[in-house]
Write a structure and sequence with these properties.
The chain has one domain. Helices cover about 90% and strands about 0% of the residues. Helix 2 packs antiparallel against helix 3 and helix 3 packs antiparallel against helix 4. The protein is rod-shaped and about 120 Å long. The longest helix is centred in the last third of the chain and has 69 residues. The protein is mainly α and about 190 residues long. It contains four helices and no strands.
Length: about 190
């Protein structure tokens, strides 16, 4: 005998035939598919939320590093200011003309160096503001993604309640919460 002559039937085949003969209850299948879609969207939102949170932290770290560099420049600026003042004091108290001129020359050099250092420090301070703004923007988007993902999780939990209670009217609640999550995800995606 060949294997084609035997009809091997499994539990799944029996369940499908039974459902077809007695009017299948499609609610569990539909809710399962809905839950799978919601879980997928929630996972994508969670991933995007984690990505924006990581970017926000990176930008904040860059702002901190840049702020430290700016502080170093301001310290350097102050040191040059002290040297300028000492050179100016030397010029004011010197009695020989050649020493007076040497001190004035040093004082002028320190004043010019201070101006260059100040320009660098001011530029770094501006960069700090830019990095902090970028960090704040990313955290705002992170919160949008987090709310969207949380709404998807709530919708999935409501789907389980629908299955357990057999109250199909709760599907409206599932849809409302899922749409809220999608709205927050769309706002995050749009950068709003």
């Amino acid at each position: 005998m060949s294997s084609e002559e035997f009809d091997v039937r499994g539990v799944h085949d029996h369940a499908l035939e039974h459902a077809a003969e007695h009017g299948a209850d499609t609610l569990p299948g539909r809710v399962a598919v809905l839950s799978a879609v919601l879980a997928t969207l929630g996972a994508l939102m969670t991933f995007a939320g984690g990505d924006t949170q990581a970017k926000a932290q990176l930008f904040k770290n860059t702002a901190s590093i840049t702020k430290t560099k700016a502080n170093d420049e301001w310290n350097y600026y102050q040191a040059k200011g002290v040297k300028h003042n000492l050179a100016q004091f030397g010029a004011d108290t010197a009695t020989r003309a050649d020493r007076i001129q040497a001190y004035k020359s040093e004082a002028e050099r320190y004043r010019k160096e201070q101006a260059e250092i100040k320009a660098t420090a001011d530029k770094l301070e501006e960069q700090v503001k830019i990095w902090e703004e970028k960090s704040d923007e990313q955290m705002h988007l992170h919160h949008r993604w987090a709310v969207g993902a949380t709404a998807m999780q709530i919708a999935i939990a409501l789907s389980a309640i629908v299955l357990l209670s057999r109250k199909t009217w709760l599907l409206y609640g599932v849809g409302l919460v899922a749409l809220t999550g999608l709205a927050f995800g769309a706002m995050a995606l749009a950068g709003i």
